[in-house]
Write a structure and sequence with these properties.
Blueprint (H helix, E strand, L loop, with lengths): L2 H4 L3 E6 L8 E5 L2 E8 L2 E6 L13 E3 L2 E3 L6 E2 L5 E3 L16 E5 L2 E5 L16 E10 L3 H9 L4 H4 L11 E9 L2 E8 L6 H6 L5 E7 L3 E8 L2 E14 L2 E11 L5 H33 L12 H9 L8 E5 L1
Antiparallel strand pairs: 1-10, 2-3, 3-4, 5-6, 6-7, 7-8, 9-10, 11-17, 12-13, 12-18, 13-14, 14-15, 15-16, 16-17
The structure holds FE2/S2 (inorganic) cluster (FES) and fe (ii) ion.
The site of fe (ii) ion has 6 residues, from helix 5.
């Protein structure tokens, strides 16, 4: 993956409630980071004390400083070394590099490098209610994204839940640019899974989009009106470790949204568990066999993903009918 390009992007890393008075260790793109609340600000540094390389996340926050628990070196909110215990005259001209953070939507966002602005990824209008949750997979990054955007696995991995085999036809068109792609599915039949039998009032179109560095959305529409939207920000934590930040949006109706979320949650959790199982086993075998695989026309997004994340040849925009 093009790590240098990814380092310049913002990622949603954790629920801001996780960060209390103690420092917190997290990893992003394989980089070990420490987070702390100092002077009411969220600060982030590489998780390494410059004295003897022990993790600063094992230290503590004392007043307005992050203190290493080995020899007590203490750093302020902008990473300046403020105290070396027992050594008044030591040169303290040492500074930790600060890493950009932002607190938004109850999430701590991080950008390792550069000065790009944070997009309002999880914005939603007042007509919709939304919830956010965090999921973790021991899987490959782009194959996890592919799975979320792929309808052809649904009658098998989610048999009965999202779709059954037969009678599921859809017309697909696609568009793309340098940073992402969008697939439009006109559904010729109502989805025949249990979730749809219970909750779907006649969805006739899905629009699935993905943009660099891993923000994906599937919109569910009826007569061009958006009824339901699920956005997942895929975060590359480390090799073989993916975090999904899942934002579910439901249109408000006379039925209270919290009730709908309570009813819908077990079904979505089951669908997630089914995907997690197959993605984790795919990752294991993929790293074991290390062989290339076959790509066919109904693999709608893999070439686009390889293009935007691995700088491979530009993906082909597909127009086809799929009969599942
Ligand atoms: S290793 Fe951190 S103070 Fe010595
Ligand atoms: Fe799935």
């Amino acid at each position: 993956m093009n790590i240098e390009k990814l380092k310049k992007e913002w990622f949603p890393l954790f629920n801001s409630k996780e960060l209390k008075s103690k420092p917190l260790a997290k990893t992003l793109l394989g980089f070990k980071l420490v987070f702390a609340r100092i002077d009411n600000k969220v600060v982030c540094f590489e998780d390494r004390c410059p004295h003897r390389n022990v993790p600063l996340s094992k230290g503590s926050v004392i007043r307005d400083q992050l203190r290493c628990n080995y020899h007590g070196w203490s750093f302020n909110s902008i990473g300046e070394l403020k105290n070396i215990p027992g050594c008044k005259n030591c040169n303290k001209n040492i500074k930790l590099q600060t890493i950009s953070t932002a607190e938004r939507n109850g999430i701590i966002w991080v950008r390792l490098e550069g000065n790009k602005k944070l997009n309002n990824y999880f914005a939603s209008s007042a007509a919709y209610s939304s919830t956010i949750s965090f999921k973790h997979l021991k899987a490959d990054f782009i194959h996890s994204i592919e799975n979320f955007l792929d309808p052809t696995h649904t009658p098998f991995i989610h048999k009965g839940l999202l779709r059954n085999e037969n009678g599921q036809s859809m017309s697909v068109t696609q568009e793309s640019n340098e940073s992402g792609f969008k697939t439009y599915y006109k559904l010729n039949n109502k989805q025949n899974g249990l979730i749809n039998k219970l909750f779907d009032s006649g969805i006739d179109e899905n629009i699935a989009s993905c943009s660099f560095p891993g923000f994906t959305t599937i919109e569910y529409l009826k007569n061009n009106k958006l009824l339901f939207k699920i956005s997942v920000f895929f975060v590359p934590i480390n090799k073989g470790k993916v975090q999904m930040v899942v934002n579910v949006n439901l249109i408000k109706t006379f039925v209270p949204s919290f009730l709908k979320f309570i009813l819908l949650r077990p079904f979505l959790e089951l669908a997630f568990y089914q995907d997690k199982k197959i993605l984790e086993s795919q990752y294991k075998e993929h790293t074991f066999f290390k062989k290339s695989y076959k790509i066919v026309d109904t693999d709608l997004v893999i070439d686009h993903l390889l293009h935007i994340f691995y700088d491979k040849t530009k993906g082909v925009n597909k127009t086809l009918d799929i009969d599942l």
